Amino acid sequence: LVAVEEGLANLRDKPVLIAWGALDFCFTKAFMERWKTFFPEATVDCMEDCGHYVLEDGGPALHQRIRAFLAAK
User: Fold this and answer.
1) Is 57's pLDDT higher than 90?
2) Which is nearest to 39 in space by CA: 17, 19, 64?
3) CB count, 10 Å around CB of 56?
4) Which residue of 20, 27, 32, 53 has the fewest CB atoms within a 10 Å radius of its CB?
5) How many CB atoms lie within 10 A of CB 19?
6) Rounded (10°) CA dihedral 65, 47, 24, 44
7) How far apart are CA 49 and CA 56, in angstroms?
8) pLDDT tens, 35-45?
9) Bridge partner residues of 20 (DSSP)
10) CA 49/CA 26 separation, integer angstroms
11) Does the pLDDT at position 73 exceed 80?
């Protein structure tokens, strides 16, 4: 995990969308705040009604957000 964290610096100059499930039992909002320190320019979408499986829980609304993010970049 340390190597993964150290490697995040290699992505700093890339556009980043952080889609976070606020109800995640494992990766809490504290983890999200930490990710925001790695990627201060990131677009952050904390989805209050989503849990650990944010891509499934977010459904079409999240899929649309991802498509819009990619289209803008």
Assistant:
1) yes
2) 17
3) 11
4) 53
5) 18
6) 70
7) 12
8) 999 999 999 99
9) 46
10) 15
11) no
Residue 64 burial by Cβ neighbours in a 10 Å radius (0-12, 13-18, 19+): exposed
Quote the Cα angle for 40-70-2, to 5°. 45
Structure tokens at 50: 């989503």
Mean per-residue pLDDT, 6-24: 94
Q: What percent of the chain has pLDDT over 90?
A: 90
**Phi, psi of 13, deg, nearest 5:** -90, 5
Backbone angles phi, psi at 66, to 5 degrees: -65, -45
What pLDDT is recorded for position 1? Answer: 83
> In which residue are the tokens 């977010």 written?
58
Beta strands in 1-73, from DSSP E residues, in sequence order? 17-21, 43-47
